[in-house]
Specification:
The protein is of the alpha+beta class and about 230 residues long. Helix content is about 35%, strand content about 20%. The chain is built from eight helices and twelve strands. The termini are far apart.
Amino acid sequence: MPIWEMLSHAQHAALRVSRAHDGERQFAQIVADEFIQAAPYYAILFTKHPETGAFYAGVVMGLEPGRNLMAVKGALPDYRPADLERQGFYITDGQLVVDREHGVFAEPDGQLLFDMNGEAALPLKRIQQALHVLQSGIPETDALIERFLAHRLLEPIDVTMSFDDGEHLTLEGLYTISLDALHALPDAAVLDLFRRGDLQLAYAQAGSIRHLRTLGRIRNNRLADIG
């Protein structure tokens, strides 16, 4: 069971947070405001919540559960999604709480959350910013996806890869923007998407799926290194 504690300097002055846990994350949720930052590094795709069936957006960082192919020595070297930045921290009733059992607190080389004066250190400031991004961004992203769905722009994407060791991997339940459907929209609908900023995000998402090939190449190269 998680151990939830309201974050405070008095109780958590010695608490350290590590990025090494990133290496275990295959997928991370992102919000619309992160699309442009994430697209140069990761494949952005849509999937459904297993419980509600509602769509949400995320970045694919690995091809197998528990394995992040983009991590270097366990941590991401490039853009770090807010969902990873805030690991182990949540907002409950307007208060910042910490799950002491989360893996981000298990590494001895983690960074302190508070400085010598008891003020928020840089890691904690990044966490606070990430929580703000998610808190405000999730409703906005839900609305964006609803607009995409209203125009029937989301379609399933087949992700099946074969590797030098003979193994085949398939990622299921993923969706992308259909550029064919987008280009077939009436001018008025396209203009509305443009003015909302949705058109830029749609192209950023569609273009980002090229990074799936990068993941396949990384996995193959590591097989060769092992061999």
